[in-house]
Amino acid sequence: MSYDDWFRKDRLPHIFCAGCGNGTIINCTLAAIDQMNWKKEETIFVSGIGCSSRAPGYILTDSLHTTHGRAIAFATGVKMAKPDFNVVVFTGDGDMAAIGGNHFIHACRRNIDMTVVCMNNQIYGMTGGQGSPTTPKGCLSSTTPYGCAETPFDLCELATAAGANFVARWTSYHVKELEKSVKAGLETPGFSFIEVLTQCPTAFGRRNKFRQVIDHVEFLKSHSLLKAKRDRLVEKHEHVPEDMFVVGELTRRNRPALGVKP
Amino acid sequence: MKLVIDEIRCKGCNLCTKVCPYKIFREGKKLNRRGIAVPELDRPERCTNCRLRNLYGRQLCGVCQLTCPDQAIHWIDEEPYEPHKVAIEY
Ligand SMILES: Cc1ncc(C[n+]2csc(CCOP(=O)(O)OP(=O)(O)O)c2C)c(N)n1
Ligand code: SF4
Ligand code: SF4
Ligand code: SF4
Ligand SMILES: [Mg+2]
Asked: What global pTM score does this model have?
């Protein structure tokens, strides 16, 4: 068996634009799930609204494609009613951090046993490129035509502060690392959150000087700072570059969780 | 095993040309029926997975397959008695 067996092959090719990183993230998540020996009948994918949220439609298991921002709320319902089910949420930065922000922090606080994969393209892709709570300072979007002036959310710090048991961040370049982190998240009882920074050539790249898809992926690669390296810099009181983001497994702990398989 | 790109799924994003350590994928030049320039393969028999998958009995490397956003990269078995190409990199 391989992760390829989890796709609804009759629905492929999917509707994502050429070079959109969402497909890569689905691959890595399914590759991790494939190693879990989970039955398809006992696995359910939940999503909200957005390009990223279309992911469950391409997967062979039962799924819920719900309303904008409410993926985690619906997933909470599924998990509390059916603790035997394995629940995985696909969501976007707008879906999860803007309209769904409250559901997100409270699911972290309750530490509900599910894995949330956030495809963070730092923009509202589906609706044509409005700025989201994770659009970096200075970046152009249709609602920040002179450059975003607001400070973006650090979703991983938010999840850690709110109480999640497992938190990791990778990019669409780090496919093997991402696969391993998703697997670790699936294995951890309680709320697991994996943020994946990814390219959206159509709504983000086009406006922000990433002419080619490869340029954006190259940027994600070169601006990733491994957590171990960041920790070493901090320890030695050296300068941590501000324009880089930390990648790696950021939190792993064993706080009391809700909805864990009996 | 043989590396193949599914022409129906590939959208020509060229991400595979960036991630393969052996540079097996090269930017395509000819547009196909759907108007997409599918990457060309440069001596795919050099790929780790093509050479060693059957020997090890598991997927090796596979970075291009995980990265391909359109699930277009696969491996297929050779036909019985199909001649195998061997490429040795120095
Ligand atoms: C209640 C409600 N408000 C607004 C919308 C419009 N809407 C659809 S998708 C979307 C943003 C999606 O952004 P994100 O979650 O980042 O997904 P992406 O497309 O970037 O993957 C918005 C605002 C909606 N469908 N429902
Ligand atoms: S608009 Fe952006 S996020 Fe949506 S499918 Fe296209 S590239 Fe992907
Ligand atoms: S990564 Fe996939 S979709 Fe993109 S060019 Fe290569 S084979 Fe085609
Ligand atoms: S499996 Fe690895 S070596 Fe083989 S073609 Fe893909 S990226 Fe290159
Ligand atoms: Mg988005």
From this structure: 0.96
